[in-house]
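fwd from M.: "can u put these together and see what the complex looks like"

so here's what she sent:
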Amino acid sequence: MEEMTAEIKKLIAREDEALLQQKVDELYPADLAEVLVDTTEEETEVLVDLIEEEKLAHILAEVDYEVEKKLLKFLSNNRLTYILDEMYSDDVVDLLGALNIGQTKEFLTLMKQEEAEQIQHLLGYDEESAGGRMTTEYIAMKQDKTVAESIQKLRDIAPEAEMIYYIYVVDEKQELTGVLSMRELIAASPEKKVKDIMHEQVITVNLSLDQEEVAQIISKYDLLAVPVVNRQGLLLGIITFDDILDVIEEEATEDMHKMAGNVEVDVEHEGEVINGVIRRLPWLIILLFASLLSANVLEFFEDVLNTVVILTFFMPTLAGTGGNAATQSLAVVVRGLAIGDIKSKEILGYLWNELKVGVLIALSCGLIIGLVAFIWQGNYMLGTVVGLAMIGNIITATVIGTAMPFIINYFGADPAVAAGPFITTLIDVFGYFIYFSLAKLFINYL
Amino acid sequence: MEEMTAEIKKLIAREDEALLQQKVDELYPADLAEVLVDTTEEETEVLVDLIEEEKLAHILAEVDYEVEKKLLKFLSNNRLTYILDEMYSDDVVDLLGALNIGQTKEFLTLMKQEEAEQIQHLLGYDEESAGGRMTTEYIAMKQDKTVAESIQKLRDIAPEAEMIYYIYVVDEKQELTGVLSMRELIAASPEKKVKDIMHEQVITVNLSLDQEEVAQIISKYDLLAVPVVNRQGLLLGIITFDDILDVIEEEATEDMHKMAGNVEVDVEHEGEVINGVIRRLPWLIILLFASLLSANVLEFFEDVLNTVVILTFFMPTLAGTGGNAATQSLAVVVRGLAIGDIKSKEILGYLWNELKVGVLIALSCGLIIGLVAFIWQGNYMLGTVVGLAMIGNIITATVIGTAMPFIINYFGADPAVAAGPFITTLIDVFGYFIYFSLAKLFINYL
């Protein structure tokens, strides 16, 4: 792709319009979208003029806010009217969602009244809910239609709909009564009625369902699309698999960032220095103050530290290993809860299992560090204290690392937030307390 | 779902076959697959007898190895022959891939010769490559067929194919020459030839492409399926979007686990204690030894530690904050590289940007911890040393956290592996070195 971008930039510089037009026509919208991330304002202007409206509609559905702004600058109202008409409603909603209210209103005036009203309606739903993700370009049939009639209707409206492979069957009140796939429609005998071949049991999602759960349903049942209904069972829209692919990627990214302690999530681009600072600093400062708890524990044991300075040498290893063990347990539970492989009810079984793993790991690491301390400093009591501290530390870490996500999940928060940094800071405190308590106990032999 | 499982278990206990059969018929394969995760051997036997073969084929395609084994135990060779015939080739490959060679051979003898040969062929590809993921139940047409003939052919073979919405066009040598969607086929006039309406530019993937890259392509171009070709351009199979949903989830899970330092990845189930230990202990031990580097740094500064014990109090905060800052930078780059939002060439721009963020964060945190140290211990020189150490520490952490994934990526390894624990261990070493070097410099004023 980087070569493609370079080549296009070269053609623009050379003002070779003929070859440029050919390249632009050859490229898929998704590719052009990538090229447009790296073009200057001047280059963008040249390109926008060469790309046909239908392709621009696809491109605008792909790109993020930055590129969107760049593109909109060079589109006349005339072209924009055509483009908005070409775009599916969920993509228009995404596009307008990024603009301010004044701009949004201006855009809505460019659309047909009926469509503008629909879009305005969709803009009212929470962005991350089924309502905010759905498109209204689905195919619905009345149940008394025959297979032949349905195929004819499909042929007529195919270019308009975002997903034509599922046909939803509704009654007069627009209530969803069944579904059938194009595969079934095409294999059925033409004179049969739709209601005789449809499936009456339909997997649906409610308007307000969170997008992550919508993704889980689409993925579990391997659907191309899922219909969105309100409480009365009226069909309002559909969510297609390709939007769900994006959701799954987004949510995985979000979880990973939360685990790393980034407050907000977005891939950062150059020039966003202040945003980067604002995003990260709050957590760092909270954690900084949390870690001062460890400083208090150390002050509490100042006499021990004063007497036996070599105890300090093993602080990083104890704290580090405890934190690592906790993070390992944590990752298993956080991800398991996120993709639904672990149920929140299973906490006790999980804790028990993790505890067994934790004890074995603790014994192994305790033995190793104990031997290292003994051999290095030639002090068998030091080895014993460091080894025992490691054992206590890892067992505590495993229990906290396993239990914490369940607890946070129970209170309705996202377990990924709890993760990594916060827990390791907490475990430091316990770890140092165990270590220096043991040391104090055996201080006369050290 | 948990209620559904409980209800079914109750019906089995009550031996209410009629109601049980009704429930089983009502449930989707994906739901039955979930129920079967929690059933005992006896319950499984009862259920398997009640589920029809077609549904069992879908269930076997969904469940993981544990459940698979449980189910296979209660299936006669007769039923199995029917089920294997019903399953798509990629799912059969997954199923057989989990068995040992003897069992695999036994299964292959149950299949039709032609299919068995095909499966054997597929089993030869790397599990995580396009070849290992593809199915051979696609729809291919010759380019001279008319639209009407094609629709008729579709009607006949629809039940066999895994994906009938993309029709691939091949020449006599089975070389892929074009593609068209069922949507386009159905909208075209019946007498037209396939070659006149097909797209000649087809997005394909090579047999050996990694599944993560296949996922990126399907997601980028919003495809329902992508054709798999060999170097000669011969069409060998397709990979459908639903398999890709699984890949995206798997890969995100894998990345998260790698970042947490779990060597191998799988949601852990009860009774897998030894596996859990084997999976986690190696990394922990490697990191334990790595952290002893910090111990060496501390020993090197033993005299400083002996003189000013209060320096110890700030060790956890310095190390912790440095580690957290590094992890934040890391998460942005690792995830960005994984989903393709960051290109490996962009390292310098990124580093520069992160450095700016890092300096601002470092100054803020340095000021805070410096003030805390000064106020707490009433020693302005201590405040200065701790504050300066924090600044140096965070800047180092940011640079290492940003650069490391790029470097690891450059050498062809997965940047997620490098992550979290390893880098924080490394940063501890630098952090302590900076801290105690500064302390040594100012030792007379502390």
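replying to her w this: Chain B is about 65% helix and 5% strand.
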